[in-house]
Amino acid sequence: MYDIYGSSVVPMNVYEPLFSYNGTNGVNTVPWLAQSYTLSFDGHTLSLTLRSGITFADGEPFNSSAVYFTYNRILVMDGSAPIGHGTQASWIFQQLLNTSLSTTLCACTQVYGTQYAQDVIAEHFVQITGPLTLELHITNPNSALLYFLAHPVSGIVAPGFVMQHDLALWSESSNDYQLPYPKLSGNETQMTNEYMIDYQATCNTGATPKGCAQTYLDNSVDGSQAGTGPYTVQSVNTATNIITLSANPNYWGGPSGNVHAQIKTIIYKYVPDQTTREIDLQNAAAAGQAMVIDVAPTNIYDVASRSDWINHNNLVSTTPGVTIYGPYTQYATWFIPLDTNVTNPFTGTYYSFQPFADYRLRLAFADSVNLTLINEQVNNKLGTVANSILPPGIPPSGTNVSSSKLAYSYNPDVVQSLLLSAMENPITHFTLENGTAAPSGEFSNAFGCTALNAAGTCNHPIPQTIPLVYATGDTIDEAILNQIAGTINNVSTTYNMGLSVDVTPLPCGQMTSEAFSGEVYAWAESCFGWYDDYPWALDFFEPIVAPGGIYAAPEGWNTAQMGEYWNAALQASSQGDMTSLINSINSMNALANEQVSNLWTFYPDIYMVMTSNIRGFAFNPGFYTTGEPSQMALLY
Amino acid sequence: MRLYEYVLRRILFMVFVLFALSVLIFYLTRGLLPPTTALAPYINPRLTDAGKLSIARAVGVATSSCPSFSDFAALQNGCITPLWTQYLYWLKNVLVGNWGYTLLPGISGTESTWSVFFGRFPYTAELDIVAAALTFLIAVPLGIISATHNNKAPDHLSRIVSLGGYSIPQFWFGAMLLLVFVLYVRIGGLGLLPASGALGTTCALCFSNPGTITAYTGVPLLDALLSRNIPYFWDSVVAIILPAMTLAITSLGLLTRIVRSNMMEVLRQDYITMARSKGLKERTVVYSHALRNAILPAITVTGLLVTYLIGGSVIVEIVFSWPGVGSAALVAADVLDINFLELFVLVAGVIIVVTNLTVDILYAVLDPRIRY
Questions:
Q1: ipTM score here?
Q2: Model confidence at B46, in pLDDT bands (50, 70, 90)?
Q3: Do B48 and A287 touch (CB under 8 A)?
Q4: Alpha carbon of B165 to those of B145, B246, B310: distances in Å?
Q5: By the CB < 8 Å criterion, does B290 face chain A?
Q6: Which pTM value belongs to this model?
Q7: Cβ of B334 and A509 within 8 Å?
Q8: A 493-532 residues inside an 8 A Cβ radius of B
Q9: pLDDT tens, residue by residue, A58-81
C-alpha cells in the first residue's frame, strides 16, 4: 500500500492498523482499532478485543472477519505481486509464523498455487472467537509484536469490498486467469479462504514482475473506500502527479473520539524542483493558503535564518507566514559500508586487491573524515554525527546508544601510521563469503612497498586504486568521500605509496544495484538511508550487522561472536526477556563499532516547513517522512 | 526524382535511423554497463538473492538455467544472456507493443511503459506546440523589426532579446518568471499565475473550481474545448503561459537572426526597389513582397527548433512540474528505466525526422525551384 510517490503517507491516512503510536512517541504503542489485548505468558497467543461501531468508508462494518481477511491476505501475497507491492508487508508478519512459507525469510523460491494457499490457511494465524474478538497464534514469539501490528502496511481493509473488486478484476477476459472459485460462497471465513486460493491461482511460478495478479487496491482510487481512516482518496492523476484526499465524513474519531479531519481537502503535488517548491510556499503564505513543502538540508538557508540556526540552534523562518518546526530525529541512520569480496562488474571475478579485508585500512578510512565539520558546513547541522547503527531513542529503551564507543575518530596522524602498517605488512589471509579460506594467490593486498627507502618513500610502488561511489546529487556524501580521498591520497603521495582513492558519482539505481551485487568497494548509503521497517533495534541490526545479513560481512569480522550475540538476542526477544535482549543489543553494538564494518555518518534530522496557518501536527520518529506530516487528521 | 519517390526514400531512411538509434541507446544503457545494472530499478536492500535472480530472468538478462544470483553477479558461464540476444528479445517485445512495466518511482511495476509514456506525452506535445507557436509569433516580428531598423535602437533591442534569450539558462529564466508572476505580481492577494502543474486553480487569473473534462485526446487544452469546459480551458491556458514562455524566449534567438538576415538580403533585391518605386506602401513592400521570400529559409530552421524544444522541455518540465515525458525521462535516466528511455528517444527521433521531412516537402511546395 504505497502511494504513487513510493511513500506510505497517503495509505496511512486511509487505512488504519489495530495498533498505533501514542501521538509523537515512537516507542509506546496504543490500541487503535483494537480496544484491548492480552498476550499469553509464552508469547504464543495474542487475544484481541476490537472496538465496536466502526465502519469502513464503503459502509462495511469493521469486525474480526476483516482482521482475518487482512492478515491472511498479507500472508498469502508473500511479496509475490508485481514490483512495489506486497514485499514489505508480508515478511514483517511472516516472521511470526512458519518462515519456510516466506520468500523473503527463507531465501527460497515458493511454488505458488492451491497448496501454498492451503498451507497459509493451515497456519491458523488468526482465529475468530467472536464478532469483535479474535486470537493471533504466533509460532515465533517476538517482543516487537505490537510494532508489527502498528505498521502502516497492516492497515485493515474491508473484505467484502476487496474480494468483490479483486475477483471482478481477475475475471476480466483479458486476464486469462482460471479462478477455482469465480464466485465466493459460505461464511466470511470460508470466502476469505477461497479468495486466497483464487489469488494463488493467478500466480506464475516465481517470476516477477509478471508474478501474481495485481489487486484492485494497487491501482484504483476507489480502493480507499476499503479503509477506516480519516481520509479517502478523491482522485489520483498519475499523469499530473496529483493526489487529492477528502475528509471521511463518517470517520470514527480515533480512540478519543475527537479526532476529525479539520482540513477537508489535501492535495499532494509532486514538484521536483526545490526553487519552485519554495516559490509555491511563499505564494501560499501570502495568499493565506495552507501548504507544506520538502526542503533539502542543503537548501535550509533558503527558508531559515542562518545566524539564528548557527548561533542559537533555532530554525527561524525568513519568510513571512511560514513556520519551521524541528529539527527532529527519525529512526534512521546514514552510513558507508566498507565491503570485501568485491567483484569486477564486467568480468564477475574478484578483484585481487581487497583493501577492506584489512582492519587497518577500514580504520584508516574511517579516521580520515571529520564528520563533525561536514555536519556543520555541508549538512548545515541538520543531523547528529552517528556513533552507532542505532539511532537514539529506538526501542527497546535501555540500550546504551548514547555512550557507544567508536573505534574511529578523525585523526590524520593515525591514518598515516595505519596505512604504513598495512603497506609494509599486508594481510595474506582472506576469507570468502561462504566462510572458507580463499585459495592462495587469489587475493593480494600488496600496495606501495614493503620497506621505505632512505628518503622515506617507496621505490617503484605497486599501484592500487580504490574507487568510492556516492549517489549523483548527494552533496553531503560527496563531501565525506572527498575528504576521505583527500586524506588517504595525501599520505599516499607523501610516501609514494601508489595508493589512489577516487570518488565517483553514480545514479542512485546503478550505485545500489552494483553495491548489492558486491561490485563496489565503498559506497554512500544515503541513497535511500537506513530507516526502520518498524521501530525496533533488531530490525536495524539484522540486515547490517547480523550474520547472513544482506550487507556482506568483510574479512576480519568476528562473525562467530556476532552470531552468538544475535542468537541470544533472538531468544531473549522470543521470551520477552528485556534485560537479556538489551544486553545482547549492546554487545552487538560494541562489536560492530569495534570491527569498523561500516562508517556510521549521521542520524539525519527532519523538519517541517509549512505555512503558519497550520498550527498543529504530529511527528513520530517511527514513521519515515521526508518532511511532510504523516497524520493528516492531526493538522489544524 | 519525383516528390513521392523522395518522400519514400526519406521514410525508409527514417526506419534505418530509428533502428540505429534503438541499437545505440540499448548499447549505451545495457552494453556499457555491467549486467547487474539492468536490475537497478528493482534492487532494494530487502530483496533476497532469489528475488534478485528472478528479476534478472524477468528482464531477460539472466538465463533461465542460471542457478543463483551470486553466479549471475559473478558472470558465470551460461548465466548471462548475450547482449544481441537481449536486444532481439527486447525488439521482439516492442514490435508487438510490449514495452514492459515502467520503473518510475511510485508506480514501478504497476503501469506499462507505453501507457505511462503516452499518458504524459500529450502534455509535452501541448507545451512544445504552444512554445513553437510563441517562438514564431515573437521571433518573426522581431526579425522583421530588426531588419527594417538595421543598426538603430529597435535592432539593438531585438539583438539583446534574441541573443540574451538564447544565452540564458532555462532553469534560471523559468525561476525568474516564477518570481515575477507568482510572487511579485499579485491581484487580490493571489499570485497572477500558478507556479506549477498543468492546471492552475489557485492564482489570480484562475478559476478555483474548473470542473472536470473528458480525456478525448489527452491534450488538456483540446480536451477542455471538446468538453466545452471554458473554465478548465482557461485554467489550462493560464498554467501553460510561463513554461511556454520560458521555452519560447530561450529558443527564439536563432529564428530571429535568420529572419533578420534573410529580410535584409531580400530588402536589397531589385524587385523590392521596383516595388518601392511603384509607390507601394512600405508595409506592403515588407510584408507582402519581402517577407514571403525571406521566410522560406526560416522554415528549415523549424527542424532545429523542434529538436531544441524537445530537449529544452526536460528542464522546463522539471522547473514547472509539468507532467510531461521530459521530466519523466530525467527520472528514468536516474533509475535506469531503459524501456522508458528507449521509447523517449525513439519517439523524439520520429518527431524530428518527420518534422524535417515535412519541412523539406513544404519548402519544395512553396518554392517551385526546389527539386530533390
A1: 0.85
A2: low
A3: no
A4: 17, 9, 17
A5: no
A6: 0.87
A7: yes
A8: 507-510, 512-514, 516-519, 528, 530
A9: 999 999 999 999 999 999 988 765
